Amino acid sequence: MKSKQLTLILIVTALMLAACGKQTAAIAPAATQAASGQEATQAESAPTESSQQPSEASQDCGTDSGEGCAPASERVDLTPPTFSNPTNVTNPLFPIKDLPSVILLGNVDGHLMRTETTLLPKTEVIEWNGQKVETLVSQYVAYLDGRIEEIAIDRYAQADDGSVWYFGEDVSDFKDGVVVSTEGTWLAGKDGPPAMIMPANPQVGDVYRSENIPGNVFEEVTVKEINVTVDGPHGPVTGAMVGEELHMDGSTEDKIFAPGYGEFWTGSGGDLEALALAAPTDTLSEPVPAELDTLTNGALDIFNAAEAEDWDSASATLESMNTAWEKYQASGNVPPLLAAHMSRALQALAGDALIPAVNAHNVGGARRAAVRAALASRDLELQYRTPAEIDRARFDLWVRQLLVDAAGTEPGPVLGDVRILELIWDRIGHTYEDADASRIEAALADLRTAADNEDLEAASKAAGQLEDILASVKPKS
């Protein structure tokens, strides 16, 4: 695969995402949240018999069939790692320490997928092989058609030779407001050894297992190309690595890792996930463009206008948003996947016969679409604002989303909204003074209770109180 071919792949990705937006316009969002709001929680990580060295790990192929793996002689992950300064991750192809916020976009089984990967403001010590290894903790949240689909809490550390190792994840999959699976959860030192997620200096032909607990989790990566050039959000990115990943079921998918970004592109069959924006890698020095302010503020104005059924105002605002979007796109510096995402959001805000919104004078549809448009605009603002600022703005928008969903009849969407708020709070709670944080946490607890009781009226009341609190507090200076 040459660099021109990789460029073509990424262009095709953007086109497929745009096409997928049209295909899924008629699909109602699935309610996807846990009834209790509790995901898989790691057990005490005292070493067990399964906490062996990588070199002592089973050499058997971890696929279901026991076939398809590379020979052990090609693996570069069999030397036991040592960790003197594990949170100082300097590996350019997996720069988790210096990558606090990432947005990826894609499609799965014809549904639009969006993920947020966030480095959490904490570390976690894991005991393995007699070592106490401090790990970085990353939060992965996947949305399908705008509703929460999966959460993973991942743990990473860099070994002394520069390779990065994966110490486990807590996984929760959601459907209709309930955690339906925690399959794939594992912890180094409890379930098995850590796994190499990126070699220090990958070379063509290198093989490593990024998950290696046969019967539970298994992934084996073979490096196919190095020093490849790919198209990033703001232009060419050199030094990327292309790998083929073998899964436990015997299927494979292609992966690209790029300097400054880490995991950059994943594809298998018709399913795709591609990096749309990363901060601070894609941060720009100029202030937020006026056009993005128009988009964000316009979406919030439509949210309020729809509640008041002031459709003349809503229509006029939508027109000004489309004008601002055309002008911003003409600047020529818009990340392509986010551009497609924003265009879809504006189309949804106008609405159509299948999902009515502003043009159909549909209150609920217009308010939901306004939140989605504001979220898409905030994604673009991540180029200009800090991740904490964007997450605080997202927090406010999900409160609004909850107010709309609580006016419905199904508890699932509200449960999902509450869990998203809790996840974002894990990212931003430390940015508030203790007294203000306590007030917000108390309101979140009330929301959780109402959602768990499927009391939509109480949830709406608690969301309104949280909205009032947010308007009265400010983050630390």
Task: Tell me what you see in this structure.
The chain has 477 residues and is of the alpha+beta class. Helices cover 35% and strands 28% of the residues. It contains nine helices and 14 strands. It has helices at residues 3-23, 290-307, 311-329, 336-350, 363-381, 387-406, 411-428, 434-452, 456-472, and strands at residues 101-108, 111-128, 131-144, 147-158, 164-175, 178-181, 186-187, 195-198, 207-213, 217-232, 235-247, 252-258, 262-268, 271-279. Strands 1, 2, 3, 4, 5, 6, 7, 8, 9, 10, 11, 12, 13 and 14 form a 14-stranded antiparallel beta sheet that branches. A hairpin with a 5-residue loop joins strand 4 and strand 5 (164-175). It starts with a helix and ends in a 5-residue tail after the last helix.
From the structure above, extract its key features:
477 residues; 9 helices; 28% strand; 35% helix; globular; alpha+beta; disordered N terminus; 14-stranded antiparallel sheet
**pLDDT < 50 runs, ≥5 residues:** 1-5, 18-38, 40-50
Strand content: 25-35%
**Overall tally of structural domains:** 2
Distance between the termini: 49 Å
Profile the largest sheet: 14 strands, antiparallel
Radius of gyration, Cα only, in angstroms? 23 Å
Mean pLDDT score, rounded?
90
From the spread of the alpha carbons, the general shape counts as globular
| Total number of helices | 9
Helix fraction? 25-40%
Oligomeric organization of the protein chains: single chain
SSE run:
HEEEEEEEEEEEEEEHHHHHHHH
Secondary structure: number of strands: 14
The assigned structural class equals alpha+beta
